[in-house]
Specification:
Blueprint: H1 2-16, E1 35-42, E2 47-54, H2 61-66, E3 81-86, E4 89-93, E5 95-96, E6 101-105, E7 113-120, E8 123-130, E9 136-149, E10 152-164, E11 172-185, E12 188-192, H3 204-207, E13 231-233, E14 241-249, H4 258-262, E15 264-275, H5 277-293, E16 311-326
Parallel strand pairs: 1-16
Antiparallel strand pairs: 1-2, 2-6, 3-4, 3-7, 5-6, 7-8, 9-10, 10-14, 11-12, 11-13, 11-15, 15-16
């Protein structure tokens, strides 16, 4: 017992004499910027936009001083030699300062192969994307239900969205739920954007096994979806029909009295996209990066890119609207 006491005393003295908090100023990290090309191709859209910028280190002093916002001041490349071909038919794209983008005018359709090439100061960027087929929706069913939360009545709409997956290929999807509220200010409609999840779900396809927190577990609702970008693939239902289950909160009046709630209007849309494999990998890696950033001991996540010679993503999707509600 005496030996143990002596050892513990020595350890205490050693640790108490150490300085565990030390700040080392490494100065600015010299990182050469990379060219970044981003573009998202929509089937049946009249225009397609392509953005070329220069990357910047996130841990530079300027970036940290400005914080994470939309005023980082990325260098936009306006004078690149930008060419594009659709199914072998080539064209040269001009830059639009109004849109900060190179613009392709003309509709793209399912199966179109788009090849983009950009040359700037001897650096060449190249990528290829193929427009996916439209997702096939079999049915959309809804049901309304109420529950008491924190002593007040809340209303939800349950969605049952059945899709049919095509056999013999790997398919990738994205679910988009926009639950927007507005209010009248005189004769003008103003947008009101409270902070809440667009939808709730414990569907294994949408959550990929992550149940979220348990605030609503008593009736089978997960309070949030960790699949922030709402992407999923057909690995669980390849070549079959599958019914996605999710819930939407209708109760903006939860935070307001009856008189205020009467003036609030709503616009709810549910859209389904079939997306290219590269776009699925890009969103999935962004999601992993977002999850890792909240853990100080996690390894950094490499965000997927399909831009040869640089960074960024050239994605493609076919989007359909499956539900719409508007009361103004």
């Amino acid at each position: 017992m005496r030996k143990l006491f002596v050892i513990l005393s020595l350890i205490t003295i050693l640790f108490s004499s150490c300085d565990f908090e030390k700040v080392v100023d490494i100065g600015s990290v010299p990182i050469t910027p990379h060219l970044v090309l981003n573009g998202l191709l929509y089937a049946n859209s009249d225009t397609s936009y392509f953005y070329i910028t220069k990357s910047r280190p996130i841990y530079s002093r300027d970036t940290i001083a400005m914080g994470i916002n939309y005023d980082w001041g990325y260098d936009i490349i306006e004078n690149a030699d930008f060419s594009l071909s659709v199914n072998g038919n080539a064209s040269h794209l001009k830059y639009s300062r109004a849109d900060s983008a190179y613009i392709l005018f003309g509709k793209l359709k399912e199966g179109d192969e788009v090849n983009v090439q950009s040359l700037y100061n001897g650096q060449e960027l190249q990528s290829i994307a193929i427009l996916p087929p439209a997702p096939e929706v079999v049915s959309v069913d809804t049901a309304s239900f109420n529950r008491i939360e924190y002593g007040r009545l809340k209303n939800y709409t349950m969605f049952k969205l059945t899709i049919k997956d095509m056999p013999g290929r790997n398919d990738y999807y994205r679910l988009l739920v926009n639950n927007e509220f507005y209010y009248l200010e005189g004769d003008t409609i103003q947008k009101y954007s409270p902070y809440y999840s667009s939808y709730y779900s414990n569907d294994p396809v949408l959550t990929d096994g992550y149940m979220g927190s348990t605030n609503n577990s008593d009736i089978g609702l997960a309070s949030s979806v960790y699949n922030y970008f709402s992407v999923f693939r057909d690995v669980r239902f390849a070549g079959k029909e599958y019914t996605l289950s999710f819930y939407v909160d209708n109760s903006v009046s939860y935070w307001y009295g009856p008189e205020e709630a009467d003036s609030i209007k709503r616009y709810l849309t549910v859209r389904l996209q079939s997306i290219s494999e590269d776009l699925y990998k890009y969103y999935s890696s962004l999601q992993r990066s977002r999850q890792a950033s909240s853990d100080k001991v996690s390894e950094p996540v490499v965000v997927h890119t399909n831009i040869n010679g640089g960074l960024g993503i050239l994605g493609a999707c076919y989007e359909i609207k499956v539900f719409e509600y508007k009361n103004f």
